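Box 4.2: Ligand-aware structure prediction
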Amino acid sequence: MINELEEKLKLIDNLNDFNQLKVTYLGKKGLINAKMANMKNLSPEEKKALGQEVNILKKECEELFNAKEKEIHNALVAKQIASEKIDVTMPGYNFNLGTIHPLNQTIIDLENLFIGLGYEVAEGPEIETDEYCFEKLNLPKGHPARDMQDTFYINPEILLRSQTSPVQVRTMLAKKGKPIQIICPGKTYRRDADDATHSHQFMQCEGLVLGKNITLADLKGALLVMAKKMLGDDRKIRLRPSYFPFTEPSVEVDVSCHKCGGKGCSMCKNTGWIEVLGAGMVNHHVLEMCGYDPNEIQGFAFGIGIERITMLKYGIEDIRNFYTNDLRFLKQFKEAK
Ligand code: DAH
């Protein structure tokens, strides 16, 4: 019987067959128990002898089954390990890395440039008070120049800032009469209908420098460096008189066209110059309202349109491209710098 079982076990290679065979031998109605079927007809000595014989047989069978069970289990584990083996030499997945958004790139470029000139980067909230966005910038309630900057009001005193200039106010109030040299990049809002050159949400980078003996010449110098860095080393700038309530005198700053070099082309509407920003010497009223003595300290401010300068730099015709997240547009800036 044992030899026969050994032969049968050799042929088995899976748990199902194994369990069946085990039941055939060791089950309640199995071959081993069958050997004791006519026990009751035997004499006590015979019973004892048969009992011992069957017990030995049962033990041998069990040992064989246990050994085989281990063997099957080990084979299964080995098979699973083999199937889960990782080939570390296989090529990895390709991750699609995004790119820095062109507007963020412009902000990074401006920050690098101005930090290099000794400026600090200041920030302020996008939800502003009427006082900081307008009143302390010399635009009292009802002032006609507010028309150009109509925005979204949360209530008559709280609004979405229409310019980054309130960060000037916040910084001046915080510095309490001390010199200042900051830029403030950030989001701004206006009640504009969206078209190719207008968006209800856009970005600006404000600049403010206050100190003793700061003049318009310093403003021109800073902006010339900025124009060269952003639009090319051989750029020139020119200042034209303009009007902003928070500066006096105020100027509009043009940069010589980076596409035609100043000869005249479609980019500069044949003038050779492109208007890029507004600036001026900080109005005495603003200085006074923000705790500065205009006879002691004065300086300049400027406001750059981030979208505008980015559109000029890369020849982008529609401002809406910046905000629609079209990969065909964004991918073009992979190598741009
Ligand atoms: N805040 C102005 C605007 O949105 C831009 C500007 C002009 C800012 C002149 C200035 C400045 O600080 O001096 O139109």
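In the box above, the bound molecule is 3,4-dihydroxyphenylalanine. The chain has two domains: 2-83, 102-333.
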